[in-house]
Known about the structure:
By secondary structure, the chain is of the alpha/beta class. It is built from four helices and four strands; from the N terminus they run E-H-E-H-E-H-E-H. The longest helix has 11 residues, at 67-77. It starts with a strand and ends with a helix. The model has no long low-confidence stretch (mean pLDDT 91).
Amino acid sequence: MWKISVNIISLWRESIYQTLESLVTQQVDFDIEINIILQWTLDQSKIAKLSESVTINIYNYEKWLWFGYYRNQAIEKSHGEILAWIDDDERTKNDLWLEKITRPII
């Protein structure tokens, strides 16, 4: 079975919770992990609620480095055969977003 790693780099946006809500509802036939590379802390009670159905990995970085560094960290931390990216202020259009973007690959 395929595994997809959805990566989010978040420097400071509260909208990440809505992004995560749109990701955990995805209808797919494979495993999903969400990797968050961030420079702030998340509300753990909100994360616990969201991570009941999907693995959410959080990697904190305290100092400011270039965006490319964080992107490379996300790649290194990913366990999936397929990597997807979404901004921390975006929402998926519907619950088939991951299925539609991975269909040509799988």
